[in-house]
Design goal:
Layout: E1 9-14, E2 18-24, E3 27-34, H1 36-46, E4 51-53, E5 55-58, H2 61-73, E6 80-83, E7 90-96, E8 101-105, H3 123-128, H4 130-133, E9 136-141, H5 146-157, E10 161-164, H6 172-179, E11 184-188, H7 189-192, E12 206-210, E13 215-220, E14 223-228, H8 241-255, H9 265-282, H10 290-295, H11 297-304
Parallel strand pairs: 1-4, 1-9, 2-7, 5-6, 9-10, 10-11, 11-12
Antiparallel strand pairs: 2-3, 7-8, 12-13, 13-14
Length: 317
């Protein structure tokens, strides 16, 4: 939908959004919108949240598919830019459903050629989207560049929560500046724990530090709380588990009075556990959003609201 944004926005976001091409063995089995940012934003739109992605895509068939998936979910695609001078990003994913494992590659297994890569939004894109950044409740990002940092600063200055889940640090100074605007920082202990300095965090910011299948840790100032992972009833595909934690938590934040402002670590634990339950349920289905694809967003929404009549049927074949 290309309508102008005139009402407050629940979530605006930018970052890693790609077309996932999924292979089992040598056979391509499916392709769908993916990437952490893509999964989080499209899922929240499916949960009836007002969502505005800020993305740079090519004017190509892959871009058409990604935009179509956002539109079908209910997101406002007014700020997805398309350019004939770039190709929309693609990522190959290899699924071993028997082992419940997956891997990724930026090389096409069919041609052995590099696949098109993700590109950040640009500075003028941030200026064009100022009305969105100044009206959103939450700004989400999983990548960092100078324009994305500017978007964080704009959203934070207007009172939005900034939810940042980086996978790497390419510029220490830029990363330290970004931490000053983060309300929630989510990252893997394996990748970044030695690089995140609490002194750079804004006061009372929440850190969600993931430890793989074991669970995760919440940190705030001098306190930390451990939350063990929720056991999966059926382990078919762990892809998207971390994204599901973010989806469940952000959806919980949006239901909370004050929408996350003044968030304490004990309150945050409640929301994170909702996300962990969603991640465990999603593991029973193939694909990063397999639960949504199999049972529909309405059942997922009821599940997240604690509706005990929202029964998820698991296939144990």
């Amino acid at each position: 939908m290309h309508a102008e944004v005139t009402a407050p926005v629940d979530v605006a976001g930018t970052g890693f959004t790609v077309l996932d091409r999924v292979y089992q063995g040598d056979v391509k089995t499916s392709e769908a919108l993916g990437g952490s940012c893509g999964n989080v934003l499209v899922s929240l739109a499916m949960l009836h949240r007002s969502v505005v992605p800020l993305l740079e895509l090519g004017n190509d068939d892959v871009g058409d598919q990604l935009v179509s998936e956002f539109e079908c979910a209910g997101a406002n695609t007014r700020y997805i830019r398309r350019s004939k001078d770039r190709l929309s990003p693609v990522l190959a994913q290899f699924l071993d459903a028997e082992a419940g494992q997956h891997s990724f590659s930026f090389i096409c297994p069919e041609t052995d050629r590099p696949l098109p890569r993700y590109a950040s939004i640009e500075a003028d894109h941030v200026d064009d989207a100022a009305v969105v950044l100044e009206s959103c409740s939450i700004f989400y990002a999983d990548r960092l560049s100078a324009p994305i940092l500017a978007a964080m600063e704009t959203a934070s200055a207007a009172g939005a929560m900034v939810y940042f889940e980086p996978s790497s640090i390419d510029d220490d100074q830029m990363f330290a500046r970004a931490l000053q605007h983060c309300s929630v920082l989510k990252y893997s202990s394996d990748r970044l724990d030695d690089d995140v300095h609490a002194s750079h965090m804004r006061p009372n910011a929440i850190s969600i530090v993931t430890h793989g299948a074991a669970g995760l840790e919440l940190r705030q100032t001098n306190r930390s709380v451990w939350s063990a992972s929720t056991p999966a009833q059926r382990l078919r595909d762990t892809c998207g588990s971390g994204d599901m934690v973010s989806i469940g938590f952000i959806n919980w934040l949006l239901n909370r009075p004050g929408r996350g402002h003044g968030l304490g670590i004990d309150d945050a634990l409640e929301g994170v556990m909702v996300g962990q339950k969603l991640a465990a349920a999603n593991c029973a289905f193939r694909g990063a959003r397999g639960l949504f694809a199999t049972h529909g967003a309405e059942l997922v929404r009821r599940f997240l609201m604690g509706d005990h009549s929202a029964q998820i049927e698991f296939d144990f074949d």
